[in-house]
Amino acid sequence: MSELNHPILTQSFAAIDREVGDHSLNEAEYAIARRVIHSTADFDFLHLLQFSPGAISSGINALQQGVPIVVDVSMVERGIVGMVAKTTQNPVMIAVDRAPVAEGGKTRTETGLLRCFEQYPEAIYAIGNAPTALLALCAELPHSTFQPALIIGAPVGFISVLEAKQALKNTPVPQIRVEGRKGGSPVAAAIVNALLVLASEQM
Description:
By secondary structure, this protein is an alpha/beta fold. The protein has nine helices and six strands; from the N terminus they run H-H-H-E-H-E-H-E-H-E-H-E-H-E-H. The longest helix is centred in the last third of the chain and has 17 residues, at 185-201.
C-alpha cells in the first residue's frame, strides 16, 4: 500500500495537521476532513463536514463487501478510480452515463441516478455536482425497502444546493454531508478516497 502514502501527500498532510492544530473530530472523521482539505486547500471543510452516527463504519463495511460506488458525474469517477484500483476494487458507476436521454421533467443525472438506485439501492452514492439528483434520491428513499450504505452529499453551487442537503439531513440514511454551498466533485472524490484508504487499512 506504499502508493497510498506518496511523500508529497505525507508532507501535505503534515502541513495540514500543523495548521489545524486541536480539533474535535475523531480519527476517521479527521482522516476524511484532512483529505478534503488537501484537495481544496480550504480549511472550512473541517467544520462543514457532517457525519451521521455510524456513517463511516457503514461506508467502510460496504466498500469491503464490494458494493458499487455510484457517482453523479464523470469528474467524481475520474477522481476515485485510481484509488479504487489500488484498494477495494469496487465497481464504479456514473449516473449521468446511465441516461443518454433525460426523462420528462428531470435532468440526465437525476434520471440516471434513479435508474442506479432501482438496480443498486444498497450502493454508496457520492454526489458532488448535481443537487437535483440528490433531491430525487432523497425523495425515493421513503418508498424503498433497501437503503444506501452511505450517501455522500457534497453538491456545490447556489440553486437547489441547500435544499438538497437539507433533504439529505432529514433522512435516516448513513450520510457524510457538506453543509452550506461549498462542495463539488473534488470534495466528493476526496471523501470516497479517504474511505477507500480506511477500508483497505482495516482489511
